[in-house]
Structures are given as C-alpha cells and as structure tokens.
Amino acid sequence: MAMKKTDLEKNKALKLNNALKLSTADRFGKAAAAEPKLDRREQRKLDQAQGLVAFACKLNGDLVTELKERAATHPEGMTGLLNEVIKRGLAG
Q1: Which range of residues forms the domain containing residue 1?
Q2: Is the domain of 44 the same as that of 82?
Q3: Same domain as 68, residue 56
Q4: What is the pLDDT of residue 27?
Q5: In this structure, what are the phi and psi dihedrals at residue 70, rounded to the nearest 5 degrees?
Q6: How much is the pTM?
Q7: Are residues 83 and 50 in the same domain?
Q8: Of 65, 84, 66, which Cα lies nearest the Cα of 76?
C-alpha cells in the first residue's frame, strides 16, 4: 500500500528534526567531553574520603544571597566558606 503524501512529508520532517538534533548533540557533546564531570556516586565517594557529610537546613533568603556572593570569591567555594563561618561562630 502506497503512503499518502502527508505521511511522506511527516517522515521527511522527522528525519530533518532528527538530523538537526544529532548535529547539535555532537557540537555540545564534544565540549562536554573536554571537561569530565563526576557522577553522584563518584562525588559522594570523594566527599566521604574527605570526611564531608551532607547537612541540610533552611536559611533566610537574604542570608543565602550574601553567602553565595562571598562563596564566589572564596577559594574553597561554599563548603569552605560555611566551614569557616560555623567554626568562628562555635568558637565565640
């Protein structure tokens, strides 16, 4: 049974969309391959080896904004900044 004209056009459109997706996937895939990302399991193992433990809490939005700003310039990022702040707070 022959395909209808509309079915042929739909198939052409699907092929074109697939080709476009593959072309952008290659482009972004190459850039992503340049810097390897750790998956969650590997990151968790590295954190455990350093003695880090996940600790969740709720903070005021303004405080979080200020912490993010300061963490951007801190050499150890957010974790290092929070370690310093909490140690200073507990010591005093």
Answers
A1: 1-37
A2: yes
A3: yes
A4: 60
A5: -70, -35
A6: 0.52
A7: yes
A8: 84
Q: Token digits for 75?
A: 């050499």
Q: Write out the two tokens for 8.
A: 């042929």
Rg (CA), the chain: 25
Using alpha carbons only, give the angle 50, 55, 61 rounded to the nearest 5 degrees: 125
Residue found under tokens 């300061």? 70
**71 within 8 A of 78, measured Cβ to Cβ:** yes
String of DSSP letters for 17-51: HHHHHHHHHHHHHHHHHHS----HHHHHHHHHHTT
31 and 7 part of one domain: yes
pLDDT of 69 strictly over 90:
yes
- For 82, residues 6+ apart whose C-beta sits below 8 A from its C-beta are 67
First-to-last alpha carbon distance for the chain, in angstroms, is: 84
